[in-house]
Amino acid sequence: MTEPDEVLDGLVQVSFRVMALLSQAAAAHEFSLTQLRVLAILRDRTPKMAELADHLGLDRSSVSGLIDRAVRRGLVQREASRDDGRSVRVGLTAEGHRLAGQVTAEVASLMAPLTGDLSAAERKRLGALLARVLA
Amino acid sequence: MTEPDEVLDGLVQVSFRVMALLSQAAAAHEFSLTQLRVLAILRDRTPKMAELADHLGLDRSSVSGLIDRAVRRGLVQREASRDDGRSVRVGLTAEGHRLAGQVTAEVASLMAPLTGDLSAAERKRLGALLARVLA
DNA sequence: TATTGTTATACTCTATAACTATA
DNA sequence: TATAGTTATAGAGTATAACAATA
To answer: What pLDDT is stored for residue A2 in this prediction?
Structure first.
């Protein structure tokens, strides 16, 4: 190949741009993109460690460390599962929820200019096409 | 906020998908996403260290380490600049070029399914919209 | 025996600060 | 003095392997 598809190339370029913005939003609060993902995931879930590892696509041992650091910062709590004595559920603390909400808002602000030049119709079309890509 | 724009949400989701595919392509050759970026950048440039750091958005000291490891793997070479005795140019070795080409092809293959369900017209439209986003 | 999570270990990535050499 | 690059150091992120507790 070597001549990459125009559209695929655009997807890669846009993805790097988006990741840079997400990293910037995370860095403003001194955490990593991965910690940002953890916060986002825990906003509407209280998964077991193994489930969280699956969501993130990481090894369980890596997630242990991530959660250790988030707990140390007071953003996340561990609690024992009653159904299975081996497993542990993780969830946001009140402060974690607050921060997750704030960062989500900041991400939206940072990203808004990306689609700022598009008309309502173009936005709708782009949204639909992205949904197809994700299908 | 808290209710993120549909389109922005799509961009974030697609970006994570793309990054996962790129990471997968890189991991198949046992290197990181950053090393993949280095290879891609050096495919058509022979920058000085400081220029490479700018492209990557990283500190020079971080790039020193990245290049050290790539040199150790025989993919990249350093050479002194003749115009400025302080600066160093970096470029791919023959093996680095070979590998960069191969990985680029593998990335294209991995990503192809993303747009596999789109018609030619839809692809064209998506490409145009992504170009607007990048503008 | 198998599974859940943690720990020990090792390496990559990254930044800051201090340093060397050149300008 | 200022700039280019490296080195020293420290911490986060990641995986593999070994382990404890529970199933």
So the answer is: 43
